[in-house]
Amino acid sequence: MAFSKLFRKKTVQDILKQVEKNETDGHNALGKHLTARDLTAFGIAAIVGAGIFSTIGKASADGGPAVIFLFLFTAIACSFAAFAYAEFASMVPVSGSAYTYSYVAFGEIIAWIIGWALIMEYAIGNITVAISWSDYFTGLLESGGIRLPQWVQMDYLTASNGFKDATALMQGGKSFDNLSSGLQAAHTAWTTSPVIGSFHFVADLPALLIIILITALVYRGMKESRNASNLMVIIKLCIVLLVIAVGVFYVDTAHWDPFAPNGVSGVLKGVSAVFFAYIGFDAISTTAEECKDPQRDLPRGMMWAIIICTILYIAIALVLTGMVNYNELNVGDPLAFVFDKLDLKWMSGIIAVSAVVAMASVLLVFQMGQPRIWMSMSRDGLLPKKFSTVHPKFKTPSFATIVTGFVVAVPALFLNLTMVTDLCSIGTLFAFVLVCAGVLVLQNKPNIPRGKFKTPYVNSKYIMPILIAIGCIYSFGYNQKATMDFLTNETQIKSSADIITGLDKEHYTKVSDYLIGLDVKNKTNETPDLELLLSQYQQDDVEYAAVIKGLPIEDSHKYESGFDLFKHKIPMWIFFIVLIGLTVWSYKDNLSLIPLLGLICCLYMMAELSVWNWIYFTIWLLIGLIIYFSFSRKNSKLNT
């Protein structure tokens, strides 16, 4: 097959003709029920969920009150991407979202890659939300006196890894009661679970339950899904506003000092968690064929959803970090935790109920998005024909909806929250990057039908070099040490937890004797908690470096250097290289500034994710390419 055929493109005209044909003969046509208000509600339903009720806690613990700037930055980046989505949705009002847009802009192979990557956004994103929903649901049951066994409310990986970490810390002298609640739960789940041979049966059964219920609702019809979503959005907006209204009276501004305790790096550490809070607005674009006026309403729905949710996120972050110290917020249910800590039990109960409703609405929107992507890919011949089956009565992609249920339900039993959050984020960011790039590719092409919405044009020819110059001045003038450490691959000291959990029994004894000898203030005959002894020096960088230097163990246990350190910087080097290429392209072709900034912001957030996420994502794409070359390439409608 010729290389050029991998990049064969669909035309906007052909796509619109096919949609018109479907609507005329009623075959494979979806029901049209949605208005701008419904789309805004779907956007809020998708965005206000796990972000506010779960991941905001970790991000606040890392960045302190300054996490609001990360919410603002992420909202701006998503807004840039939303402009690109809105322009494409107005131009090509069909269900395929970024997949169809890439088919028009780049060609078939890129469209397949983005369609495959979107599975990581919708399916894996729903795994994350189902796990968070399960945490809140089991917490709600416990508050009502119903306690499920630990091994039916936790995933396998969390229990396995938590058991290993808990065992290592207890060998280092930490008592079970002094372990974090998460490690205690993981240890309990692992040790009390049924064992078949050497296999421990630990599975998150409540997550399975909610996925089955939501899949059934999505299968039933768009009108039913819309009504359920609108009701859930009203409930959770009322609760969020109540949290802000009550919480503001308990804010102590002393908790906002220092505002950015861990600096810029601490704020950016929460990129994955905060970005995960925003994904979902693009799921609106998958409902294009079910909109009454997609070219007008899709752009409005996306923008309003992002604006409303950003205001809510910033208000919630300020209230949370004002009510308690930021470093206490690294918990799975930060809102309930904060009110519980202030002895406002009635608020904790309300939040637990609303979180269950809120996360169910996120599941609903994502479970709607994935089948419609698969339906579009099937219509093009890239997936088996069965995936484009539309239910004759309910007018939904029935087979694709059922398969989505299985794809989400099975991993939700076994995968842990952090892994799927990061994988979901990188898949989504990759989609955003390609959609923004697609607008740039098509901006000067003639004979492309334009929709009612077009991204405002600002020439980036001279703006981009100026922005690059400002970035260099900041990096080398105001952030010189961090910049030079990055460029020279300066050796980094490991955290106290990483050092202690990486020791064997022989090293434990040596490190224990050394730290007890240093710990003059707290002399004790009890078995020492090594992690606690070592972490007390982390408040002072100079003192911590001196203590680490004196530890009687090999440097490889104490420091990260060489390629072990450099490999974590590879994503950022990729970002810098692409940034230079984009600057040259913008100067040469007078690129539009807004989609260019969207591309850069999303690529930067990808670079902030760990190299392991890039590796897992690359493996995922390679699996997708194997499927493409073995099935999709030959069966593509453009091939026949």
From TrEMBL:
The Swiss-Prot or TrEMBL record annotates one GO molecular function as: amino acid transmembrane transporter activity
Q: Which residues cross the membrane?
A: 39-60, 66-86, 199-219, 231-251, 263-281, 302-326, 346-366, 394-414, 420-442, 462-478, 570-586, 591-607, 613-631
Q: Which GO terms describe its cellular component?
A: membrane
Alphabetical UniProt keywords: Membrane, Transmembrane, Transmembrane helix, Transport
User: Could you tell me which InterPro entries the record lists for this protein?
Assistant: AA/rel_permease1 (IPR002293), CAT_C (IPR029485)
Stated membrane topology is: Multi-pass membrane protein
The chain positions of domain Cationic amino acid transporter C-terminal read 593-636
**Keyword field contains Transmembrane helix:** yes
Q: Which Pfam families match?
A: AA_permease_2, AA_permease_C
Gene3D superfamilies, per database record: Amino acid/polyamine transporter I
Tell me where in or outside the cell this protein is found: Membrane
Q: What protein name is recorded for this chain?
A: Amino acid permease
Q: Whose protein is this, by species?
A: Flavobacterium nackdongense
